[in-house]
Amino acid sequence: MNLSFFDQFTSPCLLGIPLILLSMLFPALLLPAPNNRWITNRLSTLQLWILHLITKQLMIPLNKNGHKWALLLTSLMVLLLTINLLGLLPYTFTPTTQLSMNMALAFPLWLATLLTGLRNQPSISLGHLLPEGTPTPLIPALIMIETTSLLIRPLALGVRLTANLTAGHLLIQLISTATTALLPIMPTISILTALILFLLTILEVAVAMIQAYVFVLLLSLYLQENI
Predict the structure, then answer these.
(1) What span, in angstroms and rounded, lies between the C-alpha atoms of 98 and 10?
(2) pLDDT (tens digit, 9 = 90+) per residue, 65-92?
(3) pLDDT category, 1, cuts 50, 70, 90?
(4) By C-alpha distance, which of 26, 22, 48, 50 is closest to 37?
(5) Does the model's pTM come out above 0.85?
(6) Minimal CB count within 10 Å: which of 2, 175, 224, 225?
(7) Where would I find the H helices in 7-98?
(8) CA max distance for the chain
(9) SS3 139
(10) CA gap 178, 166 in Å, rounded
(11) If DSSP codes are grouped into helix, strand and coil, which group holds residue 131?
């Protein structure tokens, strides 16, 4: 059976049942279980410190009204972070390489921020479509441009996350294939390629964390515009 480089992005199935939901729920097993103790062990202390740091960074651009979204945004950040990092392990599937999943996360949350603004401050939310001091002949064109830029925000969120993770996985597979193929022919070149693969893997770990942070940070900025 011949496999292409894009087969790694195919959702795994068992008896015709897609396992993408299972791969999304698995990271929840890595989170600490709630208990009555403040500190249980070093691992839970480290996890709580990371959660506190993530929450603090996400809440900085928001006012007090936006702090109601802290649980949702922090949970989304932890979900994306764990899925992206676990997807870098061998023989694993990364759900965030699927545009459908990323759009399913981006569109409802973007729509929630938009509806929050239209409900709480409709004049200010609609005022974003027309900058102050715009010449009268340019008003129709600017309204269309600003409306288009507003509507493509969820698409940009989903495509950005999908494209960055997909490109990284493809590069890792291409270089690892080249390393294996060059080993019996040119061992020296193969070693250099393996070094590049190691550095690329470190880069992809950073990309996985940064993209999860950027996804949630942009949502928090969209929320700040509407509260």
Answers:
(1) 9
(2) 888 888 888 889 888 998 888 888 887 8
(3) very low
(4) 48
(5) no
(6) 2
(7) 20-25, 42-59, 70-86
(8) 71
(9) helix
(10) 18
(11) coil
